[in-house]
Amino acid sequence: MKIFAKLFIIVSLLISSAQAVTFDVLVLPADLANSKENYYGFEEVSEIVASDIISDFNSSNGKIQSPDLFDVRQKINKDINLKNLISATLKKFHTSESIDYQALKKISKDFSCNSVLLVSSSVITNKNSLKRGIWEILEVSTAFDINYPYRLETSVVLLDTVNDIVMWSNHYSTKIGSNTNTFEAKNYAQATEILTKIRQYSEKIVAKSASQNIILRFYPKSVRTLDKQINNSDGGALKFDKTIPQQPSTQAPDEEFFGDMIYGI
Q1: Cα distances (angstroms) measured from residue 263 to each of 57, 164, 169, 224
Q2: Which of 47, 85, 130, 254 is most buried, most CB within 10 Å of its CB?
């Protein structure tokens, strides 16, 4: 009986230890090194999304921990070589979605983690595929009264830097502008209104979906998957599509979609 009791205690301790495992994830927005350089002094979309995801991670009851962007900036500002390496790596990812695994392996070691989450956002038009910042587009549209059907694109990629593989990735896309494709801000108050809608897009849609699905990669079936269907916004400068993220055309109608997973635990 005593032997059984001892075995029970040992098994209980092992289970507790397994449940107490915390994964450290470094979140890097593509605009980390050049945020708030726009005319309005607002955060770039990638930084807003990254901050919301970090907040969700650090509220996950110890499942995932992630340093906030202030701490990340403080660290890289003390090491010019690390800062240049991160800047070059993020620029490559933002412009061509190319992943420099060797650089990210070094970066993750400097932050004592084995996983890195890259976040990139940009605006494109149906005229060309040139990626531009949302505030740059807003300034141009406002100044020249240009009406295009703009789209805000956000890519989120989770990397295992030990094995140099993509654990999970997803792409989010939403229309921005009014029903007449107008996207402008004649004054600071109107620009602030747009910023509020972007924050809603980040917090309620991208960050919520990404953080839940990433936690699911580390802890299978530990969270309820996010309902993909959302309602259209009531209007304003930023409107949301009904289905975010967009799903591959090859997906079966009833199949659950958790993003593109090349590697899963």
Answers
A1: 20, 11, 10, 20
A2: 47
- Which pTM value belongs to this model? 0.77
Question: 145 pLDDT band (50/70/90 cuts)?
Answer: confident
In the chain, where do the E strands start and end?
23-29, 64-65, 115-124, 151-160, 165-175
CATH class of 22-218: alpha beta
Residues facing residue 110 across a β-bridge: none
Which residue, 29, 21, 20, is CA-closest to 210? 29
Whether the Cβ atoms of residue 214 and residue 117 lie closer than 8 Å to each other? yes
Q: Using CA atoms, how far apart are residues 222 and 212, in angstroms rounded to an integer?
A: 9
As a whole number, the mean pLDDT across the chain is 79
Instruction: Enumerate the domain spans of the chain.
Output: 22-218
Position 38 scores a pLDDT of 73
Plot region of 228 (φ>0 → left; ψ -120 to 50 → alpha; else → beta): alpha
